[in-house]
Amino acid sequence: MAKRIKIGLLEPKFYEMLSAIDKHIAESELNPAQIDLLKIRASQINGCAYCIQSHTKDARARGETEKRIYALDAWEESPYFTDEERALLALTEEVTLIHNKRVSDETYDRVLAVFGEKRTANLIMAIISINAWNRIGIATRMTPV
């Protein structure tokens, strides 16, 4: 395997900027447990082992159950998620896989109805942020510890 760079060491400003987005999201009205779910789900879709491990650890520390973490990959068929969580997971999938079909009006309208404008803006930015982190982790082959 070719040696990969460590962006955080070479260009810490990039990490600082992404971390500032995450800090703003953490201070928003969004539920931290829901943010954990979207981070794990986006990381599963993108195949970022580092982020999956990191965010499942965070979710467990906040009290998330193993049952729900394991079911996250099949959330549409699982009885363990609320309607609000289903809306944010649908948005997470559509933003993460934006090249497939974009964000549908149905999903967008549902999220807006459940979360309102400001929280929807924060959700979209949270999804964009974790997708950026996933791409860093995958491109530089960050390994779980």
From TrEMBL:
GO MF, one annotated term: peroxiredoxin activity
Signal sequence extent: none
Annotated ranges, domain Carboxymuconolactone decarboxylase-like: 12-94
NCBIfam families registered for this protein in UniProt: ahpD_dom
This protein's name: Carboxymuconolactone decarboxylase family protein
The organism of origin for this protein: Fibrella aquatilis
